[in-house]
Amino acid sequence: MKIILLSVGKTDDMQFAQLIDAYRKRVNFYIPFNIQEVPDIKNRKNLSEKEQKTMEANFLLKVLLPADHIVLLDDKGKQHTSTEFARYLEKKSHIIPKRLVFVIGGPYGFSQEIYNIANEKISLSKMTFTHQMVRLIFTEQLYRAMTILHNEPYHHE
Question: Out of 1.10.260.40, 2.40.50.140, 1.20.120.680, 3.40.1280.10, which CATH number does the structure's domain 2-149 have?
Answer without folding.
Answer: 3.40.1280.10
